[in-house]
Specification:
253 residues, N-(1-d-carboxylethyl)-l-norvaline Dehydrogenase, domain 2, 3-stranded mixed sheet, 3-stranded antiparallel sheet, 8 strands
């Protein structure tokens, strides 16, 4: 058995999937760890559904040089599981491998719920931060932008429920509590990439909320407004940079 972890940014998932498709053999499976909720579906279209395990990570880190990652915290974890909630010997063995490496790994009973819980936190964190061009300490302290964070979370809550994901009522207060625990100087990778003129995960974060909401018949006016404001910056970055979005991550623990 082999496990392959896809950690390319969301905009490169399909590209990396096509590159991996011919290299996978036997019972090897792929665990995408991108922020967002549809990376597993994208990979399944190129490598096959039976080879994809949904996954997410919780970490604050960024690239300082090729092959060198700087961690901004002591907590790191990985959650993963087959999209149909099946637990197999293969996923148990991968969990043990993570444990031996000192990374806390769990197999949640519902990987869809886990993905959307993180999505509910990370998208408003990055989108509102990029929109306001301020670190999280300023964003959460200002009554207007704090209200934007919560509105964004409630829009995602409504979209998730419309798509059959049973996010609980306490998901928003829990995410806001996590926002309040962050270093006041903290920013999301989406915000940093746009500020530096690099391609970001705007489509997989803010754009996905708008797209998935439209598909489910759920209005997402805040995300639609932020997406419209940030999209020209994203297009300019993609026009002038041949590089993929910088690797990094943030997670809701």
């Amino acid at each position: 058995m082999g496990g392959c972890h896809s950690a390319a940014r969301s905009s490169w998932v399909s590209v990396s999937g096509r590159a991996m498709a011919t290299a996978l053999s036997g019972e090897t499976f792929v665990v995408p760890l991108q922020n967002g909720v549809d990376a597993a579906d994208q990979l399944a279209r190129t490598v096959g559904e039976g080879r994809v395990v949904g996954g997410l990570c919780a970490t604050f880190s960024f690239v300082v040089a090729p092959g060198r990652i700087r961690s901004l915290g002591a907590f790191h974890s990985v959650r993963f599981g087959f999209m149909d909630a099946a637990t197999t010997e293969r996923t148990d063995r991968l969990r043990s491998a993570f444990d031996r490496a000192g990374v806390r790994a769990t197999i949640p009973p519902d990987i869809h719920l886990a993905l959307w819980e993180k999505f509910l936190f990370v998208v408003p964190f990055g989108s509102v931060g990029a929109f306001r061009k301020a670190p999280i300490g300023e964003t959460r302290s200002d009554p207007e932008t704090r209200a934007m964070l919560e509105r964004g979370m409630r829009e995602i809550l409504a979209v998730a429920r419309a798509r059959g994901v049973a996010l609980p009522d306490e998901a928003v207060p829990a995410a806001m509590g996590f926002i309040d625990s962050l270093d006041p100087k903290g920013t999301a990778s989406l915000q940093r990439d746009l500020a530096e003129g690099r391609p970001s995960e705007l489509e997989a974060w803010t754009g996905a909320v708008v797209r998935l909401g439209r598909e489910a018949g759920v209005p997402t006016p805040l995300h639609a407004e932020i997406y419209a404001v940030l999209l020209p910056r994203e297009r300019a970055a993609r026009l002038h940079s041949p590089l993929p979005p910088r690797a990094g991550g943030e997670g809701a623990g």
